[in-house]
Amino acid sequence: MSLALAFPSSVRRVTSFLPALIAGLFAALSVVAQPVSVNDGFNPDVDGTVFTVVAQSDGKLLVGGQFTSVSGVSRSNLARINADGSVDTTFNPSPNAPVRAILVQRDNRVVIGGDFTAVQPGASGTAVTRNRLARINADGSVDTTFNPNLGGQLQPQVHALLLQADNRIVAGGSFTTVQPNGAAAATTRNYLARFNTDGTLDTAFNPNPNAMVLALALHVDNKIIVGGGFTTLQAPGETAPSTRNRVARLNPSGTVDSEFNPNANNGVTSIAVQRDGKILLAGYFTTVQPPTDVNPAGRSRLARLNVDGTLDSEFYPRADGAVATVSVQADGLIVVGGAFTAVWGQGATSVNRGFIARFKPDGSLDSGFAPTLNGAVNAVAQQADGKLVIGGSFTRATPQGASSAVIRNRLARLSTDGSLDSNFELDAGGRILVSVTQADGKILVGGSFTSIAGLTRNYVARLNADGTVDTTYAPNFNGRVYAMVLQPDGKVLVGGAFTEIGGETRRHLARLNPSGTIDSEFYPHFDGQVGTLVLQSDGKILVGGTFNTVTPGKSTTPETRANLVRLNADGTIDSAFDPNPNSTVAAIAVQSDGKLIVGGAFTTAVGSDGKLDKSTDAAGKTTDVVPVRNHLARLTTEGNLDPAYNPNANGNVITSVLQPDGRLLIGGSFTT
User: Fold this and answer.
1) Separation between Cα atoms, residue 518 and residue 501, nearest integer Å
2) What whole-number distance in Å separates Cα of residue 390 and Cα of residue 41?
3) Cα–Cα distances in Å, from 436 out to 41, 428, 432, 537, 570?
4) Residues 6+ apart with CB under 8 A from 387
5) β-pairing verdict for 377-382 and 388-392
6) Using alpha carbons only, what angle is made at residue 134 by residues 129 and 139, rounded to the nearest 5 degrees?
7) Model confidence pLDDT, tens digit, residues 475-484
8) pTM tops 0.85, yes or no
9) Which region, left, alpha or beta, applies to residue 122 given φ > 0 means left and ψ of -120 to 50 means alpha?
């Protein structure tokens, strides 16, 4: 981190220390001396819309859509993401147009479908022609043996893929022809086709829907449920089209299951099958009317069917906008994403839900799951650990209970409770300047921020060991925090520019209980900022900063202490210790023998014993003078000046670290 922010080039030898300069000095000190080492959470930063997300067995994620980069790494429409959210640099197939569907075969090869007409692995060299369907090897290269070659007169696309138990691949979309592996002529296949494992066409399978297919799911007895915008299907040998409005079930041969006819009044975009065989439908529809129902049943964008295709009358959640995706968690909870902003459970009252919601198996709303996005959710994938990865067109996410959103560009990960995956994003301009780690692994952070991970936290926050914000800990300081020290009893000393905590007066120094409440028995007040703290082995506290007086306990009488003071454990002043440096103390190091090395912006220090140096002029006259100590001095345990120690730095010392061998590392604005 550059120190130019703390020390402008025009400032080298400081004789007047403005508050802004001192604040910068303490900020730089804290950042350099006590770095924060934490996980930044899952935030891949996709620069375009995500249409599909699939979790691999190794924990990596395949992401398809219409984008050109992920986390600043060039990736055309398809990327593989490591478990931590970083880009897998070994995988870069680079299809030349959007990817809308992905499936992972049992041998880990990846089949992709979409709008593309070529794939160019590594984004260099010769592009390989692949029209709307391709198979990618695990290393990102193109499988040269697999080339179904889908086409059509208008805008042929693949929207849905399904892997059967026998490894055959079913594709649905808006295509009308296939010409596999260099076949001499194209074969008509309207909107739905099945391919053998080598990419050749399964010629016996031709359901022939009359409009686009958007969703596929495998059902009992290897039957296939198909959803989309169609109204009829007619397999070879069938004398007339079978009316099937937007959803149908096919026998393994591709013929229409005559016993299954849910009859949705508008498009079906997603299908999921529960463990009990019941079928979840999502889409644009507002009614579902199987043949056994005399009247249409209101089902706004979400419905559940029994195994035989009849309507599950006990399940009736609704959404106020299109549902693009529905999935079933391992625990049976049902997650939906789409373009809605409100949902209904089993009751008549709507509940705000920003583009994602979760329902219980009985259709009631999971009220404990309430993340909010600012744009549509198109895809949901569940990881092995239960976390949900969501993709779409959103750019912001607001964790449940948070007052502000954090950046999540088109891809985000949610914990099982709906909270956003760990991210330490601060408010604009906010910085973490200091941190300490508790014995239980929780991390206390302080700085210049007023929010963290979307939650309001003024200048101090506590993070759980997994990186999430501890919602029970919110002391609420009114100014910056520059220093923290953890005591053996779990209490923490905090120094900075604040004057209040939760509305209670605490000027520049405070002690917090482990719960985050103020220690009411510790009450020293400083008339200026505290920038550095050291806890001695005997429990006494060394405090450095930019101050002139300290008011101990609840006393109303301030005592003179310039820039460096030692407090007893109860917050009273150690009266025998008064080194009196003439300006800011920014760094303190305690040697093994108990001596102290202090650094800062000072140029003189007297010492607790008040001993002065002797100066002799040209005429031989001797006078007492204050000892010169430019920016660095060593004190005895009593606070007396060590006359033999005078490194004489020509600029501010803002940080120091004592090595095990006793040598001292210092940093600052000095040059000699």
Assistant:
1) 8
2) 15
3) 19, 23, 11, 17, 21
4) 413, 414, 415, 416, 421
5) antiparallel
6) 100
7) 999 999 999 9
8) no
9) left
Which residues, in sequence order, are bridge partners of residue 477? 501
| Token pair 């989309």: residue | 228
Q: How far is CA 42 from CA 424, 435, 467, 468, 471, in A?
A: 10, 22, 11, 12, 20
Per-residue confidence (pLDDT) for residue 30, from 0 to 100:
40
- Say if residues 212 and 232 touch (Cβ distance below 8 Å): no
- What is the residue type of 638? E
- Burial code (b: 16+ CB inside 10 Å, e: under 16) for 582-600 equals ebbbbbbbbeeeeebbbbb
- Residue among 407, 406, 361, 358 nearest 386 (CA): 358
CA distances, 208 to each of 49, 175, 193 (Å): 30, 11, 9
Residue 427: CB partners within 8 Å, gap ≥ 6?
404, 449, 450, 451, 452
- Predicted confidence (pLDDT) per residue in 59-104, tens digit: 899 999 999 999 999 999 999 999 878 899 999 999 999 999 999 9
Residue (of 322, 327, 323, 354) closest to 55 by Cα position: 327
Q: Which residues pair with 377 in a beta bridge?
A: 392
* Helix, strand, coil share (%) of the chain residues, nearest 5: 5, 40, 60
One-letter identity of residue 197? T
Q: pLDDT tens digits for 103-121?
A: 999 999 999 999 999 999 9
Closest CA to 450 of 472, 435, 431: 431
The rounded Cα 463 to chain-centroid distance in angstroms is 14
Cα separation, 509 vs 484, in Å, equals 10
Rg of the chain over Cα atoms, rounded to whole angstroms, equals: 34
Give the DSSP letter string of 290-358: -TT-SSPEE--SEEEE-TTS-B-TT---EESS-EEEEEE-TTS-EEEEES-SEEE-SSS-EEE-SSEEE
From residue 37, alpha-carbon distances to 40, 252, 363, 435 in Å are 9, 55, 43, 9
**Which residues in 219-319 belong to E strands, given as ranges?**
224-228, 232-233, 242-243, 247-250, 268-273, 279-283, 287-288, 297-298, 302-305, 318-319
Give the Cβ contact number of residue 620 at 10 Å. 6
Tell me: the pLDDT tens digits for 148-188?
999 998 889 999 999 999 999 999 999 999 999 888 899 99
Beta bridge partners of 483: 495
Q: Average pLDDT of the chain?
A: 90
Q: How far apart are CA 286 and CA 88, in angstroms?
A: 41
For residue 10 the two structure tokens come to 């025009």
Say if CB 218 and CB 273 are below 8 A apart: yes
